[in-house]
């Protein structure tokens, strides 16, 4: 059994009843959970990383910062935290934290590691993601999103509970990862320097503040003090299968990089002979080719977004109906970020016997996750990415080719349980032309949120912050300007009190945080909570091509002549009313089914609606905690529209003579999206929440306002404009 309190080896799950050493052998023959644990233990032993456990632990002991690069599936994410736990890095209640860019990875990996360790999830091994905390005081290995750790730093600037922090999938370079790297570098320096004054740091100040020189001979005492608290310095590990170790090493002052050799199973990469003009059609053909010609095994398909996924899902069903009965044994499931977590978890459910599971995913399933059963990956080579025009202050989503690093990660999802195949739907010559790595998100997104968080963390000089790669200066300046206009910053560029601090506490985009705070003053927080929740999910309405007219008629029942925000509120409330009336009092599943039927009849996307209800519940919790006044403006719609104008004044637009609109802040000419309820009426002055760039610049989620309200409700901006 284990040696030491928290440094013990992992053990099998408890047997039914009281397990003693004498009955282990008997139980082993019959107990399925024991058999599963044995299989897992075997699998763990065969991972490439297992043979270098001791060396890796030694490397972590010897280096404060370590970069680990290893093949996808070699065991970095699941095994290294367990190695560190076993080596005693969690003594004295300390935690090994692992950050992931995505929620689904944090949850599924934590579940797997809990199972491998034979412990209940939330006890020794847990996860924490926005709005969902599965940890306890006994958690020692904690998986979390990078954004969550940033928020933790607001409360505990030294991140003092952690002995080791592992930044996983660092190649993704999400904006949170980049900010986190800068923050962790700073925390690491502060912890090494101020708390213990170890001689291996440049700082020579001891706890009691006495400055020492190397010649004074006191270092041996200081050294002892350091050794006795060796885990008080923060160990940092940067990990990925596909990162440029040099960039990270340089950033961390020449940090050591180690490569873990070897992969578990081979993955055959297949390319098309020619470029595919219609990648969705090529995707469908490939899925059916695999289904009809390849051996057993599930398929993972990478698409760019919810709409694309839903249309491919429909096309698959149509084609399946044309196949003979014996070939219809395909089961499609989907996973994308705006789905509720339980829905996302469905992709991990076992495939029914005799069926082939086809998972339609966005890049959410690209890194860290292992979906059991996947043998084939279909990669059309595209991803939806954020793009930001700082001059216009406009963010949009555009579909672009993946990078080589992303292609590698995608193929790495096959070959985790046996040999696999990856079908890249482009020629090999195209692969060579791809960028090596993904352009860091910090260079292509609106930075208001990041700037607000950094300022809340006490970083006043955001432009001078030690980023691994500096964001464009114009983007930082634009964000400072926006935050100032929203009232989060004072004139001398400090976080305002209380507004700026309150805004930083919301896990939302600053413009939405401000809207909620503002709404409590306009007595319409009830309406704004619904609005923010509904705007946080992908399209609520869906209109299948073949039933367009029916869908339009259904939408009219909820439409408000004032605009989309009130229309969305109408949908939310109608769903609530329906649920309330039809509550069976029997089971949640039954109620969900009834609501789903109602959604279908009304051409409402039930997934999006459920997700919005979930988000609504969670932000309402935040609002209550902050003590904001929740009230409804009831029938006083003008009041609510005024509040929208006061909140989203940066996104106001005026009608042009020919029927297009000019966005007042950016000067861009934009069109109302055909899905908006105001598409035909085209009022004089509007506010909007989203700009979508296709062949036109479309705006969505629009409400009619009075032009004069702008100067009245946002004088800080509109009086400057005149
Ligand atoms: N949920 C799971 N179910 C089944 N097997 C799993 C699961 N999670 C991990 N594994 C197994 O453990 C192996 C190692 O997974 P791990 O995530 O630690 O690798 P990794 O090196 O971090 O990969 P990546 O770089 O792709 O994140 C997988 O290849 C797979 O065989």
Automatic annotation (TrEMBL):
<comment type="similarity">
    <text>Belongs to the DEAD box helicase family. DEAH subfamily.</text>
</comment>
<dbReference type="InterPro" id="IPR001650">
    <property type="entry name" value="Helicase_C-like"/>
</dbReference>
<feature type="compositionally biased region" description="Polar residues">
    <location>
        <begin position="17"/>
        <end position="33"/>
    </location>
</feature>
<dbReference type="InterPro" id="IPR027417">
    <property type="entry name" value="P-loop_NTPase"/>
</dbReference>
<dbReference type="Pfam" id="PF00270">
    <property type="entry name" value="DEAD"/>
</dbReference>
<keyword id="KW-0347">Helicase</keyword>
<feature type="domain" description="Helicase C-terminal">
    <location>
        <begin position="284"/>
        <end position="458"/>
    </location>
</feature>
<dbReference type="GO" id="GO:0016787">
    <property type="term" value="F:hydrolase activity"/>
</dbReference>
<dbReference type="GO" id="GO:0005730">
    <property type="term" value="C:nucleolus"/>
</dbReference>
<keyword id="KW-0507">mRNA processing</keyword>
<dbReference type="InterPro" id="IPR011709">
    <property type="entry name" value="DEAD-box_helicase_OB_fold"/>
</dbReference>
<dbReference type="GO" id="GO:0005524">
    <property type="term" value="F:ATP binding"/>
</dbReference>
<feature type="region of interest" description="Disordered">
    <location>
        <begin position="1"/>
        <end position="33"/>
    </location>
</feature>
<dbReference type="InterPro" id="IPR011545">
    <property type="entry name" value="DEAD/DEAH_box_helicase_dom"/>
</dbReference>
<dbReference type="Pfam" id="PF07717">
    <property type="entry name" value="OB_NTP_bind"/>
</dbReference>
<keyword id="KW-0547">Nucleotide-binding</keyword>
<keyword id="KW-0378">Hydrolase</keyword>
<dbReference type="InterPro" id="IPR014001">
    <property type="entry name" value="Helicase_ATP-bd"/>
</dbReference>
<dbReference type="InterPro" id="IPR007502">
    <property type="entry name" value="Helicase-assoc_dom"/>
</dbReference>
<dbReference type="Pfam" id="PF00271">
    <property type="entry name" value="Helicase_C"/>
</dbReference>
<feature type="domain" description="Helicase ATP-binding">
    <location>
        <begin position="57"/>
        <end position="261"/>
    </location>
</feature>
<protein>
    <recommendedName>
        <fullName>RNA helicase</fullName>
        <ecNumber>3.6.4.13</ecNumber>
    </recommendedName>
</protein>
<dbReference type="GO" id="GO:0003724">
    <property type="term" value="F:RNA helicase activity"/>
</dbReference>
<keyword id="KW-0067">ATP-binding</keyword>
<dbReference type="Pfam" id="PF21010">
    <property type="entry name" value="HA2_C"/>
</dbReference>
<keyword id="KW-0747">Spliceosome</keyword>
<dbReference type="GO" id="GO:0045943">
    <property type="term" value="P:positive regulation of transcription by RNA polymerase I"/>
</dbReference>
<dbReference type="Pfam" id="PF04408">
    <property type="entry name" value="WHD_HA2"/>
</dbReference>
<keyword id="KW-0508">mRNA splicing</keyword>
<dbReference type="InterPro" id="IPR002464">
    <property type="entry name" value="DNA/RNA_helicase_DEAH_CS"/>
</dbReference>
<dbReference type="GO" id="GO:0005681">
    <property type="term" value="C:spliceosomal complex"/>
</dbReference>
<dbReference type="GO" id="GO:0008380">
    <property type="term" value="P:RNA splicing"/>
</dbReference>
<dbReference type="GO" id="GO:0006397">
    <property type="term" value="P:mRNA processing"/>
</dbReference>
<dbReference type="GO" id="GO:0003725">
    <property type="term" value="F:double-stranded RNA binding"/>
</dbReference>
<dbReference type="InterPro" id="IPR048333">
    <property type="entry name" value="HA2_WH"/>
</dbReference>
């Amino acid at each position: 059994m284990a040696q030491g309190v928290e440094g013990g080896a992992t053990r099998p799950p408890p047997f039914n009843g009281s397990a003693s050493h004498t009955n282990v052998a008997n139980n082993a023959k019959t107990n399925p959970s024991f058999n599963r644990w044995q299989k897992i233990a075997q699998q763990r032993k065969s991972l490439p990383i297992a043979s270098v456990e001791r060396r890796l632990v030694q490397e972590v002991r010897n280096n404060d910062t370590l970069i680990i690069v290893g093949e996808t599936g070699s065991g970095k994410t699941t095994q290294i935290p367990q190695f560190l736990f076993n080596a005693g890095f969690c003594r004295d209640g300390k935690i090994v934290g692992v950050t992931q860019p995505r929620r689904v990875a944090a949850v599924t990996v934590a579940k797997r590691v809990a199972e491998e360790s034979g412990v209940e999830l939330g006890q020794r091994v847990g996860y924490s993601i926005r709005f969902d905390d599965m940890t306890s005081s006994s958690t020692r290995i904690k998986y979390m999103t990078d954004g969550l750790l940033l928020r933790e730093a607001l409360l505990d600037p030294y991140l003092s509970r952690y002995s080791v922090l592992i930044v996983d999938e660092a190649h993704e370079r999400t904006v949170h990862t980049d900010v986190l790297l800068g923050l962790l570098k700073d925390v690491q320096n502060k912890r090494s320097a101020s708390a213990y004054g170890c001689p291996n740091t440049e700082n020579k100040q001891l706890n009691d503040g006495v400055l020492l020189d190397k010649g004074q001979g006191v270092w041996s005492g200081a050294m002892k003090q350091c050794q006795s608290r060796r885990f008080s310095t923060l160990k940092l590990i940067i990990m990925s299968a596909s990162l440029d170790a040099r960039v990270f090493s340089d950033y961390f002052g020449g940090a050591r990089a180690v490569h873990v050799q070897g992969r578990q199973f081979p993955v055959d990469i297949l390319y098309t002979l020619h470029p595919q003009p219609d990648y969705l059609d090529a995707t469908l053909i490939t899925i059916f080719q695999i289904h009809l010609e390849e051996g057993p095994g599930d398929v993972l398909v990478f698409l760019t977004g919810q709409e694309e996924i839903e249309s491919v899902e429909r096309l698959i069903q149509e084609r399946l109906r044309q196949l003979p009965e014996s070939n219809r044994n395909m089961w499609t499931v989907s996973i994308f970020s705006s789905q509720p977590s339980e829905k996302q978890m469905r992709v991990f459910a076992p495939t029914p016997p005799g069926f082939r599971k086809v998972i339609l995913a966005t890049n959410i399933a690209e890194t860290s996750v292992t979906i059991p059963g996947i043998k084939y990956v279909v990669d059309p080579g595209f991803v939806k990415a954020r793009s930001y025009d700082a001059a216009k202050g406009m963010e949009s989503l555009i579909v672009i080719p993946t990078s080589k690093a992303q292609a590698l990660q995608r193929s790495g999802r096959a070959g985790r349980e046996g040999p696999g195949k990856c079908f890249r739907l482009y020629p090999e010559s195209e692969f060579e032309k791809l960028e090596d790595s993904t352009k860091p998100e910090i260079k292509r997104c609106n930075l208001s949120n990041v700037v607000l968080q950094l300022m809340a963390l006490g970083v006043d000089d955001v432009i001078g912050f030690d980023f691994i790669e500096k964001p464009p200066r114009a983007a930082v300046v634009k964000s400072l300007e926006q935050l100032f206009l929203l009232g989060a910053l004072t004139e001398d560029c400090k976080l305002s009190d209380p507004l700026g601090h309150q805004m930083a506490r919301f896990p939302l985009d600053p413009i939405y945080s401000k809207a909620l705070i503002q709404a409590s003053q306009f007595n319409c927080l009830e309406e704004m909570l619904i609005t923010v929740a509904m705007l946080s999910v992908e399209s609520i309405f869906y209109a299948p091509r073949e039933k367009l007219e029916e869908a339009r008629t259904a939408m009219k029942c909820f439409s408000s002549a004032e605009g989309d925000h009130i229309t969305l509120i109408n949908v939310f409330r109608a769903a609530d009313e329906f649920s309330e009336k039809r509550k069976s009092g029997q089971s949640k599943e039954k109620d969900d089914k009834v609501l789903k039927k109602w959604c279908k009849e009304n051409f409402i996307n039930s997934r999006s609606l459920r997700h919005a209800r979930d988000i609504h519940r969670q932000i309402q919790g935040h609002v209550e905690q902050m003590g904001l006044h929740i009230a409804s403006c009831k029938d006083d719609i003008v009041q609510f529209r005024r509040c929208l104008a006061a909140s989203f004044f940066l996104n106001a637009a005026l009608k042009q003579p020919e029927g297009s609109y000019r966005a007042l802040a950016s000067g861009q000419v934009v069109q109302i999206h055909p899905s908006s309820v105001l598409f035909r009426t085209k009022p004089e002055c509007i506010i909007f929440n989203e700009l979508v760039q296709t062949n036109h610049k479309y705006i969505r989620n629009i409400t009619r306002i009075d032009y004069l309200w702008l100067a009245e409700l946002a004088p800080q901006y509109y009086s400057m404009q005149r």
